[in-house]
Design brief:
CATH superfamily of one domain: Periplasmic binding protein-like II
Low-confidence stretches: 1-22
Mean pLDDT: 92
Largest sheet: 5 strands, mixed
Amino acid sequence: MKKLIALVLSLMMVLSLAATASANVIDPALVPEKTGEITVYLYGDKTPRMQELCNNEFAKVFLEEINCVVNVEFIPWSEYGTGNMTDRMILSGGEDFDTTLTDDSWTLQSYTKGYVQNVKDLIYNYMPHYVAVTNPDSLANYTYPDGGMYAIPFGNKPTADTFRTICVRQDLLEEVGMENIASVEDVKEFVAKVHAKYPDMLATMDYVLPAFLLRGIGDRNLTELTTGLWIDEDTGEVVSIADSDEFKQLCELFGEWYNEGVISKDILTNSTSNNVLFESGNYMFWRGTSGTTVYENLPNLKKVIPTAQTAEYFLSPEKPKYKTQYENTAFQIPVTSENAQYVALFIDLMCTAEYVNMFAYGIEGVDYTVENGKVHRINTEELFYDWMMFNANISLFPEAMPDDFIPVYQAWDDGAIRSKKLSVKLSYDDIKNEYAQINAVWSEFAYPMMAGVVSYEEGIAALQSKLAEAGWDKYAENISAQVAAALQ
């Protein structure tokens, strides 16, 4: 009898486990009966482990949960943004894809061109997990005057003043006898002292109007709006940055560094991504990302410089913090895709507590373990980007996140002000020719000045003249009118 009872209990346990294993996280009622297939474009390089998981465990999950074959392809980061590879594919109607990453600026231009689908119904009809863990403010940022939503913002973590902090090599800062960075003068002192000790080290590679340095120049609180135009957060005024004293000081600062040999001579032509350059150990500082550099970039940096440490500082720390985004990234679905429902289910699946860590880190026990409530990575190859996947509501913190920094990180957004930029949805319909020409002029004439390659004195007259020829007055007046109307 005891053996029979034991056998029955054993069978019951097996059946219970089988039922648990077969239970779907995604509601089967939302999943089409016909097996679908989608192509997802990410950026960078597809690592061997990512390829292996996409062929095996990830593929199995996608089939079982959403009845879909998901082809994850990678293209260079240089193809990110409006006018590049995915835009050309939509325009040509050639090779199909079903989703790729985007941001608010790119989405706005894609919406204006009619390149992207309205995803509002998809979000509320097919993405319950996503809605439960997503900040609703991020959805508002991608909602347009017609009431539609034209991208799916993804991820949920602190984002106040993203790219507006300076991330420094803290080990070098301490090595040269400094305790803190709070002003541009502090940055100059830091660079001079490190350069004296390590003559081959470079200051930074972030030259395209680095907001983290502009924060420390002057008294205004400026946020970049569009090419050459910034918005004053206090007044709502649209500022021509090329005509500003802040721009002059920034160009002069990079000019000094370029002449001192702490700016790379190939800064304008080096296409290597900035995170890779910083992680090489050859740079003193770059832009911060609301505290996440400590776990997103420091581990790779420590592989090169085991003693390296990083810290993020606010220049002019008395100034307010602003929220210009509420998401890690966003997904857009092109108008050419006929598989939008599967894309929605794919994104919803990545927003479940059951799978969020798997897609970021791999298979527990093989690619990572959980130790003291944190992720310890065994496999260090990139999968779905962990910076993209992190959601404060469901993700585990990585092991690299210091315990004493977690409460600082969790409180990062406290007191942050919603940027006026988020109230503005710019249209370039009436100035598309001017906008295209101004972008070309800005790249050709402003970038060399901002990198220090061409001095401010040598370059400013040519920049302003070329902008005028490109239709600057019409462009600036149009944008200013749109901003004024949006802020009424």
